[in-house]
Amino acid sequence: MAVTSAVVTSAAYIIIGSWDPYGPMLTNAALRRGLCPPTATVYNASAVTSHPLSHFRGTVRWQNPPVYRPLVDLSTMEERHLIITYRFDRAAIQELCIQLEPDLMSAIRHPTGIPPQVQVLSVLHFFASGSFQTTVAMASGMSQPMFSNVLSRVLSALLKHMRSYIVFSQVEDLPTMKGDFYALGHIPNIIGAIEGTHVALPPPPHRSQQVYRNRKSYNSMNVQMVCLADQYVSHVNAMFPGSVHDAYILRNSSIPYVIGQLQRQCVWLLGDSGYPNLSWLLTPVRNPRTRAEELYNEAHGRTRRVIERTFGLLKVRFRCLHMTGGSLFYSPKKVCQIIVACCMLHNLALRRQVPFLQEDGPDGSVVAAVEPVDSDEDEPEEEDMQNRDSVIQQYFQ
Predict the structure, then answer these.
(1) What angle do CA 104, 343, 169 make, to 5 degrees?
(2) Which of 286, 307, 308 is nearest to 297 (CA)?
(3) Quick one: which H or E segment has residue 137?
(4) What pLDDT was estimated at residue 203?
(5) C-alpha to C-alpha distance for 56 and 170, rounded to whole angstroms
(6) pTM, 2 dp
(7) Considering only CA atoms, which of 72, 51, 49 is closest in space to residue 60?
(8) What is the C-alpha separation between 11 and 255, in angstroms, rounded?
(9) Could you give the C-alpha distances from 18 to 7, 26, 62, 124, 204, in angstroms and in order?
(10) In b/e form, how buried is each residue of 180-199, taking b as 16+ CB within 10 angstroms?
(11) Do residues 345 and 87 lie in contact, with contact meaning Cβ atoms separated by under 8 Å?
(12) Helices (H) and strands (E) in the chain, counts
């Protein structure tokens, strides 16, 4: 007999993996098929074992039916656990699921598909923990390859709604924004603080990987953000690699155009000394010579500190962006998508006033949140000092 091996795929069927001239006699279904092909063919396992020729030399390996892990269930979790694990309360998660459900429903057409709610929870867990995909997938009740597909699907669905989550200053909101910033440091007409921060990623596998190495000698994306006085992210640009200067990113972003549309409203942004002082961007005085300039620098620092607190809150809420979570092992394009998605969710948490609960570190202490900001200060720029000098003379003399 030509049979050399047989592999059982479930409790009911067996695969005969070579030419078997007696195979068509084993079941009625096989008889209807005609002669057994030289490729693997499925037969009834009970018929094989009861057939008089079933004592053939070969290997029969019985396998148990597949076991599926239970999927994570939102309804069974406590509110505190939700906030610690997923960074959102039940109501916020349900709102997010309803918004993304039309784009995620296609994933459940397959019999083993993942419901939209589970997809959203698994991705929120990944953002919040910064863990490897395998760990997050096991906690959510799915395989790692399946979670990889879910991550791409949820990111795509989220980014479709970016303009409803990250909105730059509207004219009708300017008086409130100016008042909130003035309360921080008594500098008038400020509508945002701008700064760059780095998010680590592994060396991209191509020749241009050196452009991703930043001033601190690790690979990253240099992310430009503008925030409001309440730490709401009003602008994010995550497209530039780590070696690119902050001032270059500013020149090639949409900020100059957007601020230009608001110039009649007399508005300014605050930036550190890595940026040039422009007609709409106030930076600190590098070498203050008068008491008024010193007072201005102190007020500037108090006001601009809000962007550093925003970076700290964003990265500790979503540990996948924090250095302690390691690098994001994805392509630069996908890292950019993850950064923007986290900024969107950060704004959602602020809008819904979700309390932030930190997990304790291994020694019982709270894990540090804020990373030092590395400012770019070595690129000379043409500067417009008129507005800054006017502010110093009018408010700090």
Answers:
(1) 115
(2) 286
(3) helix 133-140
(4) 84
(5) 80
(6) 0.79
(7) 49
(8) 64
(9) 11, 15, 18, 48, 45
(10) ebeebbebebbbbbbbbbbb
(11) yes
(12) 14, 9
The average confidence (pLDDT) of the chain is 81
Burial code (b: 16+ CB inside 10 Å, e: under 16) for 140-154 equals bbbbeebbeebbebb
3-state secondary structure of 246: helix
* 34 burial level (CB within 10 Å; 0-12, 13-18, 19+): exposed
For the chain, what's the residue count? 397
CA–CA gap between residue 17 and residue 40 (Å, rounded): 4
Residue 101 CB neighbour total at 10 angstroms: 15
What is the DSSP pairing of strand 60-61 with strand 6-8?
A: parallel
Amino acid at 65: P
For tokens 């530039």, name the residue: 240
Whole-angstrom distance, CA of residue 338 vs CA of residue 295: 39
Which residue has tokens 């990373």? 371
Separation of alpha carbons 224 and 32, rounded Å = 68
Phi and psi at residue 312, to the nearest 5°: -60, -45
What is the DSSP secondary-structure string of 163-184?
HHHS-PPPGGGHHHHHHHHHHH
Could you give the CA distance from residue 24 to residue 10 in angstroms, rounded to a whole number? 20
pLDDT tens digits for 343-368? 999 999 999 999 887 654 433 333 44
Tokens of 22: 């007696």
Task: Break the chain down into helix, strand, coil percent, rounded to 5.
Answer: 45, 15, 40
Distances (CA, A) of 261 to 80, 165, 187, 267, 280: 44, 21, 21, 10, 11
CA-CA distance, 237 to 310, in Å (whole number)? 15
Contacts for 317 with CB less than 8 Å, ≥ 6 apart: 87, 128, 342, 346, 349, 356
Backbone angles phi, psi at 14, to 5 degrees: -135, 145
What does the pLDDT read at residue 123?
A: 97
Q: Name the token pair of 10.
A: 């479930």
